[in-house]
Endonuclease/exonuclease/phosphatase domain-containing protein (Zygosaccharomyces mellis), 356 residues
Amino acid sequence: MSLRRLLIPVRSSIPGSNPAKLSVLTYNMLSPYYMWPQVYTYVPEKYKNWNYRHKLLQKEILGLYRADIMCLQELTSLDYQQYWKKVLMDKYNYGSKYIAKPPPRYWDRPLSEMDGVGVFYDLNQFDYVSSTGIYLNDLFGTFDLKEQDYLEHKVLQLTDGQGNPTEKMTLSDVLKSRNQVCMFVSLRHKATNSFLVVINTHLYWKYDEVKLAQCMIIMRRLSKIIKDLLIGVQDTTYNKVKIVFAGDMNSPRDSLVVKFLKGDAVSHQNLKLINPMRPYLNRVLYDNIPQDLFIHTCFSGKLKGIFDYICYHNEDMAPRKVLGVPQDLKVNPEMGLPNALHPSDHIPIMMEFQLL
């Protein structure tokens, strides 16, 4: 059975006349160091092997679905430096930027084996402008006094991997103790002379309060990045800046996180949250495709769902095609990954846009 999936045409709400196209891919690669024995009991040993999985990742990312913009999560520092950065530059003329997560307390491996997120971009189509990587546990300067007071007094009941209650911590302490990161890369699109800020992140896997706070940190940093871009580049205006926000959000389509990112007012714990960057984001890729096209994007044994997103604004980009679901997963959506054909427990998500 082939790994190849088809790009399926989708309806766009804005029939743009600009011929410029842009393809975006996001993919959680499943770090070899997160192949927990107690979680992936259903995976035969030969398909857990990193060399086996890496060859499939190469085939997918380089051979089948090489997009103009690629956002990869759970990419280790070692793998980025020794393989992806070099191969994509030397063979395909792609630039890249990467940030590794700070190691958690339990980490006893070399720092080079810690994972992070990387953004890759086709230098035939883009000029590199600037980049910024941030740690989502750095709360300094992000929240005002009222918000800080909420973070410091909101108590969360933490749970273990099976959902059993463990300890209680304030939201502020939980945020500071987690190690998620985010990468921003600003590019100039050569054909249209517009600017694209690409954002790649991998949010924490549970607690809506934590994920919403992490999103607010990202959006407030994005606001500063856009302002700096306008100052640093001559004759650039707000309407020339487009945003692509991609990654593993660990949140289903009806979640508060996704509603917040799309600009909806989210009421949570007596707070009304609104994305400060909603003029730049109002859609996710699932808004323009059949509701039943994707059942899951993560096919881990016990954890399945739609967690991977590409966010944009429909006045900046019109979706034209989306990468379909592998046939074997359409037939058996409860299958557990990785397996012989799929190197990660996530599938790559890709959409082709027409720039407006």
The longest helix spans residues 208-232. The mean pLDDT is 93. The first strand starts at residue 7 and ends at 9. The chain is about 25% helix and 30% strand.
